[in-house]
Design brief:
By secondary structure, the protein is of the alpha/beta class. It has 16 helices and 11 strands. It has helices spanning 15-36, 42-57, 76-90, 111-126, 149-152, 181-196, 202-210, 224-228, 232-255, 261-276, 295-309, 330-346, 368-371, 400-415, 421-428, 445-450; strands at 4-6, 65-71, 99-102, 132-136, 164-170, 216-218, 284-290, 318-321, 351-355, 383-389, 436-437. The strands form 2 sheets. Strands 8-9-10-7-1-11 form a 6-stranded mixed β-sheet, sandwiched between helices. A 5-stranded parallel β-sheet has the order 3-4-5-2-6, sandwiched between helices. The radius of gyration is 26 Å and the shape is elongated. The protein starts with a strand and ends with a helix. GO terms for molecular function: ATPase activator activity. It is a single-pass membrane protein. It holds the Pfam family LAP1_C. This is Torsin-1A-interacting protein 1/2 AAA+ activator domain-containing protein.
């Protein structure tokens, strides 16, 4: 058996990345928040995910992205933290200089003065340009100054449609446990309209609320562990994942007995480093390339690696087959793959297996520029495993480095030549120092293992 293993480290900055990156960063960040704020409902995360992704996916949104985060007393101390994290995800460029306006500082001021102050603040920040604005304590703005947001949140004529506006509201009482989610969210609107803004004119307030009616999310109580860091059982899960991977790799090594120490060392170090990190800087990416004598083994090895990296989905691995796409239009394949990946990540798959990378119609493979980025990848906790079937055996006279170069030359010169040499070279440059060569297998252990 002869195979190669390689790792993608990241893509160039190109137009495609600009399209997919913000949505991916948001989804990935939301998943991270969900792992910390574990007491929030599925509906809570679904509203944030769908509204946020729909807005970020659009090149010409019809309206701004607006979230109203409402917190009953038990969640008062957490709502600002969550709102700030959302704003940082939506405007990472200004992570350290977020646009934040504090309603509690305005509650004693004349409404007209507050309205002018807010308007000037918003325009100043948006002109920079900030992509997200955070309004703390919407309920403390002196009525009717809140009506300024009629224009900013309009669903047809808003002046800044690419903007995200996040409001926080501190509710005075806990919602009744007997209320449904919908009814609890309605109580937020009633509180604002009937108790807070009653002096501002009922019609105007109702009109304003209609613009956020489907984006109200009500927080549940949270725990101090999420403010200080992951709880101990999360840390344990990280070490368990690394242990499962190392043990599984040892088992593979006992079956594929003729491989070099270099091969297993790269798999072990790259995999363990990724799994040990609570905040990896990039995804874990393997590219397994097999010459003809290894064609029957490469899928087995890739599947076993994926099972080790995502044991929860061992029986339902996320697998995409390039051979089924080779006759399809590249744009169609690109969309199909992107939808497939997002669907799997949304249900928390940790590993994705792409069979026959070489059969994807060029340039659809460039989708992975964004997914495999070493700084801005949307899903940094992910493992992506590619397989490549090489057409010929490498010459025995080649050194390991030269044999590894032949994999890159095959993809760039023979497979992807029509996709643009510069883009392909940029993609391949991320695997240059991590390619390793497998030797052939002579025992029946691998056959018994894979049968």
């Amino acid at each position: 058996v002869v195979c190669f293993v390689a790792f993608f480290l990241g893509p160039p900055k190109n137009d495609m990345k600009a399209d997919f990156e913000p949505e991916g960063v948001f989804r990935n960040g939301l998943g991270n928040l969900q792992s910390k704020f574990t007491n929030q409902t599925d509906r809570f995360w679904k509203i944030l995910r769908i509204r946020g992704s729909t807005h970020l996916r659009s090149k010409d949104p019809s309206r701004p992205l607006v979230f109203l985060l409402a917190a009953p007393p038990a969640a008062h101390e957490w709502v600002d933290c969550l709102a700030i994290k959302l704003a940082e995800m939506l405007d990472s460029r200004h992570k350290n200089t977020l646009a934040r306006f504090h309603g509690e500082k305005e509650k004693a001021n004349p409404p007209d003065q507050t309205k002018i102050t807010m308007d000037n603040f918003l325009k100043e920040k948006i002109d920079v340009p900030h992509k997200a604005v955070l309004i703390h304590h919407l309920e403390l703005l002196p009525p009717p100054s809140q009506l300024l947001f009629h224009s900013y949140c309009d669903d047809q004529n808003a002046p800044y449609k690419h903007l995200a506006i996040i409001f926080t509201v501190h509710m005075p009482v806990e919602p009744s446990p007997s209320l449904s989610s919908k009814q609890a969210e309605e109580s937020v609107k009633k509180y604002l309209s009937h108790d807070v803004w009653a002096k501002g004119g009922r019609n105007a307030d109702t009109s304003l609320l209609s613009r956020v009616a489907d984006t109200v999310v009500l927080m549940n109580v949270c725990f101090v562990a999420f403010f200080l860091g992951p709880p101990k059982n999360d840390m344990k899960a990280d070490f368990e994942s690394e242990g499962v991977f190392r043990n599984g790799l040892g088992n593979l090594q006992s079956k594929f007995t003729n491989q070099t120490d270099r091969f297993w060392k790269i798999l072990r170090i790259r995999g363990s480093t990724h799994l040990r990190s609570k905040d990896p800087s990039r995804p874990l990416v393997f590219l397994l390339a097999a010459p003809p004598t290894a064609h029957e083994w490469v899928d087995c090895l890739a599947i076993k690696l994926a099972e080790m990296l995502d044991s929860r989905h061992k029986n339902t691995l996320a697998r995409f087959h390039g051979e089924k796409e080779k006759a399809n239009p590249p744009d169609q394949t690109k969309i199909t793959m992107d939808n497939f990946l997002k669907e799997k990540f949304d249900v928390s798959h940790k590993a994705v297996l792409i069979h026959h990378l070489e059969l994807l119609p060029p340039p659809s493979q460039l989708l992975f520029h964004s997914y495999c980025d070493d700084q801005n990848a949307p899903y940094k906790h992910l493992a992506i495993i590619f397989t490549v079937h090489m057409p010929v055996e490498p010459s025995p006279s080649l050194s390991s480095k030269q044999a590894e170069e032949s994999v890159k030359k095959y993809l760039s010169h023979d497979v992807w030549a029509k996709g643009g040499r510069k883009a392909d070279t940029s993609l391949l440059s991320r695997v240059a120092d991590t390619v390793v060569l497998m030797n052939g297998e002579t025992s029946g252990l691998a056959r018994d293992f894979c049968s």
